[in-house]
Specification:
282 residues, 2 domains, alpha+beta, eight-stranded antiparallel sheet, 10 strands, two-stranded antiparallel ribbon, 31% helix
Length: 282
């Protein structure tokens, strides 16, 4: 509770300076802090371990020092402008308290990422065998491959393989579930051959555990990197096309991918369908 008093008093002090060019004194700032504390404690909850928790304490400390400076006794026997700091109107204090709460809400919400939401299932995936061709923008064929999709005991395994003319291999496998929403369970990617900058084997699980193995093209040096990531529920490596076709017309969705450089990095991807094309299957 003391920490919330400090965090509540600081925005009220700031609000007073914005509206009137000064604070409301230590007592006035802390009265506003009580209101901010109640809102912060019961609506937003505790924020243990937050480095921003000292923000209110530091700002209040500066406010206390300023009040001491203005209320000290000078050699002439007169004090600083005490009356100007202690006689404030209820209306201006109420407005400043409201503005202080707004600052507090902004601080608390601004540092919290928006909750990620998985994409709902509209079209259930089933067994699939697709024959793929990969061409350059000029239409030249550079690789052929397969898309194989099978049921794996409550989940779906989707594997896309490309064989390049120079012998290079791209092999991507993702296992996912589709109970109301799409959820990636595991992902594996193999890239080998001269078309790639280095040979790479990547794997990670829904739990966030990952492993990256690379082999340099020049000297054959191998490196292994493993660890654990905190993954949101809408990570869709290997499922971008599947997720995109399940968006409703005119809708867009922001999802996440894990990019390996080789250090894993969580990035956002915005999906926004543009136009429709009829496809004949069978």
């Amino acid at each position: 509770m003391p920490r919330f008093l400090l965090n509540g008093a600081a925005p009220v002090s700031v609000a007073g300076r914005v509206m009137k060019g000064r604070g409301f004194g230590v007592l006035g700032n802390n009265i506003g802090g009580v209101v901010g504390a109640l809102v912060g404690r019961f609506i937003f909850g505790f924020r243990g371990g937050d480095p921003e928790a000292r923000l209110g304490a530091d700002a209040l400390g500066r406010s206390v020092d300023r009040e001491r400076l203005h209320n000290r006794t000078w050699p002439s026997g007169r004090r600083g402008s005490v009356g100007a700091h202690t006689c404030f109107s209820v209306r201006s204090f109420t407005r400043a308290t409201a503005l202080g709460l707004l600052v507090l809400v902004t601080v608390l919400l601004g540092s919290r990422p928006l909750a990620a939401a998985p994409v709902p299932v509209r079209f259930v995936e089933g067994a699939t065998h697709g024959f793929l061709l990969l061409r350059t923008v000029d239409g030249a064929l550079i690789a052929s491959g397969d898309l194989l999709q099978v049921d794996r005991g409550g989940g779906v395994e989707s594997r896309m393989v490309f064989h390049f003319k120079d012998g290079s291999l791209f092999d991507e496998t993702v296992v996912f579930t589709q109970q109301r929403v799409f959820t990636m369970q595991s992902y594996r990617l193999v890239q080998r051959g001269p078309i790639f900058a280095e040979d790479t084997e990547i794997s990670f699980e829904r739990t966030g555990k990952y492993r990256v193995k690379t082999k340099a093209r020049k000297d054959g040096r191998e490196e292994v990197l493993d660890g654990t990531l905190d993954l949101p529920p809408d990570v869709y490596n290997g499922l971008v096309l599947t997720v995109a076709k399940n968006l409703r017309k005119g809708a867009s969705e922001t999802v996440h991918l894990v990019a390996f450089t080789p250090t894993p990095r969580l990035i956002q991807l915005e999906l926004a369908p543009s136009g429709e094309h009829k496809v004949l299957v069978g």
